[in-house]
């Protein structure tokens, strides 16, 4: 729609005329609500990153092979610009963190040629940064403490094709 | 350009409010610290009933400086205050949320954890 330029301030000084002016505009042009031309459903954006998505799902599968708990893949591209996917997993001991991290690293190098930057020694919050995909491996207390899922609550969660085990009850 | 005796705000909810830099970690005899450098600091002011107390010596990463940060494309970022995020020996942030915008240089310096907790990345 083309807007003709009005001197809005002059009109607003006469309060009674303003309503009439706006009514005239509505009658002339109809109710125009600004719409961003590129508005797409959030699901469509995921298809752009099919390769990254397949990498993220492969990483999640590797993590579940090592019995990581509660794996979540979040599509954060609409929220942050510096990455596409977050993968959050829980590991229950430091050797398990080490195992998950080294398997994910091997998968990245061999199949996708990506070398991660991030923690080399296992940490209670181990992070592997593959550029478009960031992997967070937590110990259970840290996962509750930092609560990344709440911080990124608006991110769409990607369904994983395999069975996701809930973290087993540890007495 | 942070040096020993510099007071910094704290950009997270760890419980500290103000830090004073004591030492810059890295090469020996380094004069100034910039965004992304780890410093040793003492807590000068803390929130009551928090896990961190006044006059505790901790490590922190500088996230905002009044001295501008220069990028290769010519862009300069200059904040209005000096601020740091409290960190532990392993490099994990002590607080759970970060306040203020964070420069993306922290990601290249292996502080992606801070970047992932930041509300806005410049």
TrEMBL record, chain A:
<dbReference type="GO" id="GO:0017148">
    <property type="term" value="P:negative regulation of translation"/>
</dbReference>
<comment type="similarity">
    <text>Belongs to the Iojap/RsfS family.</text>
</comment>
<dbReference type="Pfam" id="PF02410">
    <property type="entry name" value="RsfS"/>
</dbReference>
<dbReference type="GO" id="GO:0009507">
    <property type="term" value="C:chloroplast"/>
</dbReference>
<comment type="subunit">
    <text>Interacts with chloroplast ribosomal protein uL14c (rpl14).</text>
</comment>
<dbReference type="InterPro" id="IPR043519">
    <property type="entry name" value="NT_sf"/>
</dbReference>
<protein>
    <recommendedName>
        <fullName>Protein Iojap, chloroplastic</fullName>
    </recommendedName>
</protein>
<dbReference type="InterPro" id="IPR004394">
    <property type="entry name" value="Iojap/RsfS/C7orf30"/>
</dbReference>
<keyword id="KW-0150">Chloroplast</keyword>
<dbReference type="GO" id="GO:0043023">
    <property type="term" value="F:ribosomal large subunit binding"/>
</dbReference>
<dbReference type="GO" id="GO:0090071">
    <property type="term" value="P:negative regulation of ribosome biogenesis"/>
</dbReference>
<keyword id="KW-0809">Transit peptide</keyword>
<keyword id="KW-0934">Plastid</keyword>
UniProtKB/TrEMBL annotation, chain B:
<keyword id="KW-0699">rRNA-binding</keyword>
<dbReference type="GO" id="GO:0006412">
    <property type="term" value="P:translation"/>
</dbReference>
<dbReference type="InterPro" id="IPR000218">
    <property type="entry name" value="Ribosomal_uL14"/>
</dbReference>
<dbReference type="GO" id="GO:0070180">
    <property type="term" value="F:large ribosomal subunit rRNA binding"/>
</dbReference>
<dbReference type="InterPro" id="IPR036853">
    <property type="entry name" value="Ribosomal_uL14_sf"/>
</dbReference>
<dbReference type="InterPro" id="IPR019972">
    <property type="entry name" value="Ribosomal_uL14_CS"/>
</dbReference>
<keyword id="KW-0687">Ribonucleoprotein</keyword>
<keyword id="KW-0689">Ribosomal protein</keyword>
<keyword id="KW-0694">RNA-binding</keyword>
<keyword id="KW-0934">Plastid</keyword>
<dbReference type="GO" id="GO:0003735">
    <property type="term" value="F:structural constituent of ribosome"/>
</dbReference>
<dbReference type="Pfam" id="PF00238">
    <property type="entry name" value="Ribosomal_L14"/>
</dbReference>
<comment type="similarity">
    <text>Belongs to the universal ribosomal protein uL14 family.</text>
</comment>
<dbReference type="GO" id="GO:0022625">
    <property type="term" value="C:cytosolic large ribosomal subunit"/>
</dbReference>
<protein>
    <recommendedName>
        <fullName>Large ribosomal subunit protein uL14c</fullName>
    </recommendedName>
</protein>
<dbReference type="GO" id="GO:0009536">
    <property type="term" value="C:plastid"/>
</dbReference>
<dbReference type="InterPro" id="IPR005745">
    <property type="entry name" value="Ribosomal_uL14_bac-type"/>
</dbReference>
């Amino acid at each position: 729609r083309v807007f003709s330029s009005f001197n809005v301030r002059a009109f607003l000084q006469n309060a009674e005329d303003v309503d009439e002016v706006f009514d005239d505009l509505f009658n002339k042009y109809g109710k125009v609500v600004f719409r961003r031309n590129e508005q797409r459903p959030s699901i469509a954006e995921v298809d752009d990153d099919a390769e990254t998505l397949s990498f993220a799902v492969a990483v999640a599968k590797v993590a579940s092979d090592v019995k990581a708990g509660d794996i979540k893949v979040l599509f954060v591209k609409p929220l942050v610009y510096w990455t596409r996917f977050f993968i959050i997993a829980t590991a229950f001991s430091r050797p398990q963190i080490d195992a998950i991290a080294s398997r994910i690293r091997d998968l990245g190098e061999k199949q996708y040629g990506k070398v991660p930057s991030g923690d080399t020694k296992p940490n209670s919050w181990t992070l592997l940064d593959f550029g478009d995909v960031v992997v967070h491996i937590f110990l259970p207390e840290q996962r509750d403490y930092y609560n990344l899922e709440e911080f990124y609550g608006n991110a769409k969660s990607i369904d994983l094709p395999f069975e996701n085990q809930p973290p087993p009850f540890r007495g | 350009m942070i040096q020993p005796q510099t007071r910094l705000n704290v950009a997270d909810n760890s419980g500290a409010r103000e830090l004073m830099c004591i030492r810059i970690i890295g090469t020996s005899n380094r004069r100034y610290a910039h965004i992304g450098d780890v410093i040793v600091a003492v807590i000068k002011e803390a929130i009551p009933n928090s896990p961190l107390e006044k006059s505790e010596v901790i490590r922190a990463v500088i996230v905002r400086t009044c001295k501008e940060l220069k990028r290769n494309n010519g862009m300069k970022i200059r904040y209005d205050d000096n601020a740091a995020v409290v960190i532990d020996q392993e490099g994990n942030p002590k607080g759970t949320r970060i306040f203020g915008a964070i420069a993306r240089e922290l990601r290249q310096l292996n502080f992606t954890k801070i970047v992932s907790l930041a509300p806005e990345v410049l």
